[in-house]
Inverse folding.
């Protein structure tokens, strides 16, 4: 068995040749340095973050007089996070980042999210804001906003959802009115704003979708605004937290209703072009949620392995019983496969930025698979983790139930997994069908066991790509799921060739789990 | 679409001919009366119990000075429950029950558990105690204990698990010492005792496994004792609650550590024969947990249907979107299939009691399938229910997350689902293989789509029945799962013939979900 950091380094160094790619992206990185970065991130995550995750869940968040109090130990943890500089791993060098490939951030973020998903959401959203601003802000905005975000002194949020506008953002009603001095006044309410308000960051920068007075109706009339909680002159802006949600998990991550009342904001990008800007950074955001899924898989597996090794029944550790061994085997195999899919997606993002031919299409196809498959698996793996613990798993003390409760949000936010599947099947398959068929063929070549499922996947893709929307819509989720089983199996097979320590995971996956791909393809193609 | 009570009545009246069977069991019951009973139970569950389920979850249980305070509204609810007489539906007439078939209780209990699983656990455990005492207590014990239990004035508990004895009950250490006057003094600690202590029942009767001083080691040296919280003369017995668990769900059902300190108890049954007595009532207890799974499927589906009908996006109710329709279709089909499997199991219990040939073997085979398949599906269906709600599903207010959290205990308690699968594959298949193959053949005859999967199931059964224990153990869970998909599909196909309103569920299940059976059989037969 290899630990998470070991698998991450193996995949990035030996399956993806990341050091060479990093050089092309202008941030040279030796294999040994990458190993050292991941080992250090793992140490930070396990020693500084993970010990507080149960307490963070128990303490949760409290809204008092407009201030959200996050778990008390988060203030010190944020200072350590700032000092260690992890936030800037993949951020632009000119604003204080280290400029490493995005895949390195994805790897570091897996370790952080695995240690405490609730805490990890703050760096995740901040990284999203950095991504967006680095590509779409003016030079002046970048100079003011990026350094404190990259230093993790400020946190960033994404203000999209409104009560009547969930998956359908064209229904956004928040208004932005020019103030006559080049700025805007934002008024409206946003819900489900992760880390929308907190008592530990020096400032919070809200990236908010709103409509200008002359905006056309629908999705072509939405603009993007940057709205800081505290203005440059130290005044408090007109934005406040109206409530926090009582949720099944991620108790330590405040999910806020944010009320904007003539809040001062700046336009980011062109007027009415807010949705394309937001969507442009969606690949990274959806990848990040998939990575959260991997992190929760890894945490569930680590907890279950430790419990099964230490708990005895009938005179031997329960890990030795065939059914417990089966559960642990599935957890390990799925975790490794999910990690490899997520890294393929992350490296594709870097390759696309390096201008490699075909990388853009690969990224477009892999992103929904990564987001949906890795997060659906996280909920299942966490549930298996509870089962390994037996009755103790249902008791909060062991932490197994927390992984399961925390993980359950990931199939929902940043576009539900149904939305991901429709993005793949209704939007991307018609556009990139040859690229998808090539991806399937590549998977089919990885191992004899994959040939049949990969062919069936390619055929289903060709069928669904041009099926009527009702048929494609009803088949989308099982199709995406099948794609994940095939692509994950292929990655495990390739990884086992390079690193024999992964042969057990690969064998278990291909022999025992891969049949699920065919079952889900049959479902995808059956009349609804 | 038919409601839960409608499907229950349809299945019992028209698929199982329960009224005729009831007559043979000495409790004549007309079809119309059965319909009326189920409608009344549904009304009680929906109008009296269900409105409090969110509040029950929120309030949870508190241990104060040795007293467990359950949610405040439960005191009044228990009085209504007592007055309505539901506890005694299938209990012996001579002790105040109505003597109806067990299947009627199973149907009523589904409705109760669906309304509030935490509350439902009290009647469930009490019914288990009644079952056990009705068959194994002395006439004198029955006369003293059964009337107050059947009237729901007392509640009953099962004291099996100890910290070192979870799935392996042979490791029980609690001691029972004769007091020289025909009674016993019980000393030891039990954990995970459902409703072990509470502030609303007049008394609590603990049925406790313990060892006599001369007991042989292992499972043949365990005896069963009845230990009331309050003794006949009004003295408080030496049993107290040492703590309650903080759990992921069923917050309103106290899960207690019970400490017995020279508590006065009575032997139930023969010395050293406690485990067989306990196991004799396990069929009913495991069936009841499977029924809980059905109840949670039904609740999740009802909540999701209501939400999807009322929530609009892009100008139409989300229920009309193909992927939401897919989720609702799966939830409805699985709920109906689980209900039909549970009722087959319940009716088999009644047929076995009526002495019908083959009923005992059918009951033995169906019980683990009912317990494990229905509860695994409950967690999945509840998770789909969250997904239908989107972000609102992760917020506790909608109640969707509660169903998921509550349902997650059911695959664990009353023998984990791994234990169920091993009971089926390692114990029952070798003994009852012809009966299992007949069951599979019966399923294969229900619809052309079932022929292949049913044959594959029968072949896998023949293979696993005589495989080495490690192979059978590693294949047990996926095998049982496959059995549930096949048997559930067969029941839906038969039900749709009798009642065309179920054709949609049957078609959805057979076309889209049944392929999972083959995938899980491949997994079961693959080398571990």
């Amino acid at each position: 068995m290899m630990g998470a950091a070991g698998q991450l380094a193996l995949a990035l160094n030996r399956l993806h040749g990341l050091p060479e790619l990093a050089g092309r992206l202008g941030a040279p990185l030796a294999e040994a340095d990458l190993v050292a970065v991941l080992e250090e991130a793992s140490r930070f995550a396990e020693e500084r973050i993970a010990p507080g995750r149960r307490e963070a869940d128990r303490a949760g968040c409290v809204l008092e007089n407009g201030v959200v109090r996050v778990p008390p130990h988060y203030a010190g943890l944020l200072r350590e996070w700032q000092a260690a500089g992890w936030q800037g791993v993949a951020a632009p060098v000119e604003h204080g980042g280290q400029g490493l490939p995005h895949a390195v951030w994805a790897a570091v973020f897996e370790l952080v999210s695995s240690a405490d998903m609730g805490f990890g959401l703050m760096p995740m959203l901040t990284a999203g804001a950095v991504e967006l601003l680095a590509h779409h802000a003016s030079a002046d905005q970048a100079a003011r906003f990026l350094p404190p975000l990259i230093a993790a002194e400020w946190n960033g949020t994404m203000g999209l959802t409104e009560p009547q506008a969930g998956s359908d953002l064209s229904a956004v009603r928040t208004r932005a009115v020019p103030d006559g001095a080049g700025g805007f006044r934002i008024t409206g309410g946003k819900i489900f704003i992760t880390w929308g308000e907190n008592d530990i960051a020096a400032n919070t920068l809200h990236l908010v979708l709103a409509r200008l007075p002359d905006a056309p109706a629908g999705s072509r009339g939405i603009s993007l605004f940057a709205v800081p909680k505290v203005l440059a002159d130290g005044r408090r802006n007109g934005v406040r937290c109206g409530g926090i949600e009582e949720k099944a998990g991620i108790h330590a991550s405040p999910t806020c209703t944010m009320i904007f009342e003539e809040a001062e904001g700046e336009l980011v990008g062109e007027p009415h072009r807010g949705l394309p800007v937001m969507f442009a950074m969606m690949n990274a955001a959806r990848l990040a949620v998939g990575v959260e899924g991997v992190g929760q898989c890894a945490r569930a597996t680590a907890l279950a392995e430790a419990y099964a090794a230490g708990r005895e029944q009938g005179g031997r550790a329960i890990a030795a019983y065939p059914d417990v061994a089966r559960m642990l085997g599935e957890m390990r195999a799925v975790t490794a496969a999910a990690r490899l899919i997520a890294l393929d997606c992350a490296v594709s993002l870097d390759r696309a930025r390096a201008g490699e031919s075909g990388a853009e299409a690969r990224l477009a196809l892999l992103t929904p698979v990564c987001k949906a498959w890795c997060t659906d698996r996280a909920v299942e793996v966490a549930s298996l983790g509870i089962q390994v613990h037996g009755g103790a798993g249902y008791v909060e003390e062991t932490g197994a139930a927390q992984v399961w409760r925390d993980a359950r949000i990931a199939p929902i936010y940043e576009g539900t997994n149904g939305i991901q599947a429709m993005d793949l099947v209704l939007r991307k398959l018609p556009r990139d069908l040859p690229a998808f068929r090539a991806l399937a063929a590549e998977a089919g070549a990885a191992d004899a066991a994959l040939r049949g499922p990969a062919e069936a996947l390619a055929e289903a893709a060709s069928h669904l790509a041009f099926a009527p929307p009702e048929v494609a819509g009803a088949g989308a989720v099982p199709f995406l799921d099948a794609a994940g089983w095939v692509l994950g199996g292929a990655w495990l097979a390739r990884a086992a060739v390079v690193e024999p320590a992964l042969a057990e995971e690969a064998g278990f996956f291909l022999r025992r789990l891969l049949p699920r791909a065919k079952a889900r393809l049959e479902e995808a193609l059956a009349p609804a």
In short: Chain A has three domains: 4-154, 156-272, 416-528.
